[in-house]
Design brief:
Low-confidence stretches: 80-93
Largest sheet: 5 strands, antiparallel
Structural class: alpha+beta
CATH class of the largest domain: Alpha Beta
CATH topology of the largest domain: Uridine Diphospho-n-acetylenolpyruvylglucosamine Reductase, domain 3
Order of helices and strands: EEHEEEEEEEHHEEEEHEHEEHEEHEEEHE
Distance between the termini: 24 Å
Shape: globular
Mean pLDDT: 93
Length: 351
């Protein structure tokens, strides 16, 4: 097992972090060896994906970073069977028009979306162009345009660090919620090895959100059409993290109650909301722009992106302290004026 000392800036799309010890893992056996090594030294384990949702502190001496390069994917016809799922009975009927797509954690998630579209499958096309690895996708329960990963996820193969064994978890065991999961709150419990998705050959687009609603009624609509529009939209709103270091949406969108919305609209009648299960979803980008007055704001080397204020950009050589202070000031302004507490979506790794 080779341990390398690396700059964690190179593993953060925000280009923020100190030096850390890294092990590249290419098999399940190598993974077990690395976990045992970390345990013997009393060090925490952090799994590195593409770094598109993570930034790091300067002192990372308590961590051993593992980069999973276990790759590959396959499609399996399901036949007609029952399979654990995300519905209330933790079970759903799988039809002959559906397939299981299993992919290892080291793959790039958007490559898997592209592959599914090439196979004329439906289910994850709305998640196109979301950066990151397959292994990171369930942690955040990534989502976009009315679709979340949990909607198609069947099971996850994991390594249980405490029990020192590999096992499968059903969707219902992962505590998925909006941009949330069991994995996010228990980072030292499991290491994700692979995921299995339930996709369909049937025409099942999700087109309620703008601008995808423009595709409603289009003759001959394909999942590729949806993917193409999603990509085009994301490219116009979001900066290329390779040119302008960022981790995408820094904050989650907010879900408020009807009572909260009734109060807020008296002060902010133009505030857009979208009714969802459990309340009303408020675009945090709107709050940052119109409440915190921080769209395009820049302080030192840190600022929000002019076309999408949800995105915080490292314009120079900002460190974690500067990023945190900038984000905290936005949170403070929004809470003071609305009572809404913005929750960060990105992961900050610190000792």
């Amino acid at each position: 097992m080779e341990i390398r000392k690396v700059s964690m800036k190179e593993y953060s799309a925000l280009r923020v972090g100190g030096m850390g010890d890294l092990v590249v893992v290419k098999s399940e056996e190598e993974l077990k060896d690395a976990v045992e090594y970390a345990a013997a030294g009393g060090r925490r384990i952090h799994i590195l994906g593409s770094g598109t949702n993570t930034y790091f502190a300067e002192d990372l001496s308590k961590y051993l970073f593992l980069k999973l390069e276990i790759i590959g994917y396959k499609i399996q016809d399901t036949g007609s069977k029952k399979q654990g799922g995300s519905d209330t009975n933790n079970e759903k009927r799988i039809t002959n028009n559906e397939v299981f797509l299993t992919t290892f954690a080291g793959e790039t998630f958007d490559d898997i979306v592209k592959y599914s579209v090439e196979q004329n499958l439906w289910g994850i096309e709305n998640l196109s162009h979301i950066p990151g690895s397959v292994g990171a996708a369930p942690v955040q329960n990534i989502g976009a345009y009315g679709v979340e990963l949990k909607d198609t996820l069947v099971s996850i193969r994991v390594f249980d660090i405490e029990a020192n064994l590999f096992k499968d978890l059903l969707n219902s065991e992962c505590d998925f919620a909006y941009r949330d999961s069991f994995f996010k709150h228990n980072p030292g419990k499991y290491i994700i090895i692979s995921i299995t998705l339930n996709l369909t050959k049937e025409f099942k687009p999700v087109l309620e959100y703008k601008p995808l609603d423009s595709l409603q009624g289009k003759a001959g609509l394909t999942s590729k059409d949806v993917r193409d529009l999603v990509i085009a939209t994301r490219l116009t709103k979001l900066p290329d993290w390779k040119k302008f270091p960022n981790t995408g949406s820094f904050f989650k969108n907010i879900i408020i109650t009807k009572e909260e919305w009734d109060t807020l609209k008296m002060t902010y009648p133009d505030m857009p909301v979208h009714e969802v299960r459990g309340g009303y979803k408020v675009p945090t980008a709107w709050l940052i722009e119109h409440v915190a007055d921080a769209k395009g704001l820049k302080v030192g080397d840190v600022g929000t992106w002019p076309n999408q204020p949800l995105v915080i950009v490292n314009y120079g050589n900002a460190d974690a302290e500067e990023i945190n202070e900038f984000a905290s000031n936005i949170q403070k302004k929004v809470e003071e004026k609305t009572g809404i507490k913005l929750e960060r979506e990105v992961v900050f790794v610190r000792s």
